[in-house]
Design goal:
Elements (H helix, E strand, L loop, with lengths): L1 H37 L9 H14 L1 H33 L1 H16 L2 H12 L3 H25 L3 H9 L4 H38 L5 H10 L3 H29 L3
Helix pairs in contact: 2-10, 3-4, 3-6, 3-8, 3-9, 5-6, 5-8, 6-8, 8-9, 8-10, 9-10
Length: 258
């Protein structure tokens, strides 16, 4: 029985990962084929082998991990701050209509302003250091979590709320035992979007003012016409978004689908 369970687990994981690995190999093959058929020069469209060689050279210099980690710290702090603020605002916005009427228009208006326009102001106010880039990442990450959490808290059936009232549950007990578990699946949906957007926010902050990070690498590659470095930076950004998305999916599978 135990052996069968292990075999089933291995087959299930293979069924998940094999299509993804196959798609990655297909993407690299088509990319390489396009470069060969089009006969593009490396400064226009480098092949995957040139991008891999450039990333390997960065790793050999010790710069790859330093820049990757700098962006990862900004993304992690920005996502954490954005999620915290979004969840803190979601509950009162979901339950108190007066508060929603007062705050919601300004929140929506803030999302209409491009983050590229806001980032320079944050850097002027808070300096060119880590804090400004974290705030840029947080600003772009908090809104999807906010909207998904509001929708999750409001989707709790009325009869369930009446049941908790009949049992004389406190507001905290109603939140922790009813509203929070019911909203978790929707919140995780917004959290996945926020995770990818937080990478974009950190990248924008690094483009405007930074001396390290993946955005700094891409800006440097652009200035030197080092197209393989630009492509490598894009792949590094994608790796961070994929890692975050995968981690959140694992948490969702563990907490929201029990």
């Amino acid at each position: 029985m135990f052996g069968k369970a292990i075999g089933w687990s291995v087959r299930a994981r293979s069924a998940i990962w094999l299509p993804r690995v196959g798609a990655a190999f297909l993407f690299v093959f088509l990319w390489s084929l396009l470069v060969r058929i089009g006969d593009y020069p490396p400064f226009i469209l480098p092949g995957p082998e040139r991008v891999a060689a450039r990333l390997w050279a960065l790793a050999a210099e010790g710069a790859l991990w330093r820049h990757w980690w700098a962006t990862a710290v900004e993304v992690g702090l920005g996502l954490g701050l954005g999620v915290t603020v979004g969840l803190a605002l979601a509950y009162p916005l979901a339950h108190w209509r007066l508060f929603e009427r007062m705050v919601a228009p300004y929140l929506v208006a803030s999302q209409a302003v491009p983050i590229v326009a806001v980032a320079p102001l944050l850097i002027i106010w808070f300096g060119p250091g880590l804090l400004a880039r974290v705030l840029v990442s947080a600003l772009i990450a908090f809104f999807p979590v906010l909207i998904s959490a509001i929708a999750g808290f409001r989707q709790v059936p009325l009869e369930w709320r009446e049941l908790f009232r009949s049992l004389r549950a406190t507001r905290w007990q109603t939140f922790w035992k009813l509203e929070w578990p019911a909203a978790l699946p929707v919140i995780f949906g917004g959290l996945k979007i926020s995770a990818t957007l937080s990478v974009i926010g950190a990248f924008v902050g690094e483009l405007i003012s930074a001396d390290r990070g993946i955005g700094f690498l891409i800006k440097q590659g652009q200035g030197l016409y080092d197209t393989p470095l630009v492509f490598g930076g894009i792949l590094l950004l994608a790796s961070q978004a994929l890692l975050l998305y995968g981690a959140i999916s694992m948490l969702e599978h563990r907490w929201a689908r029990r």
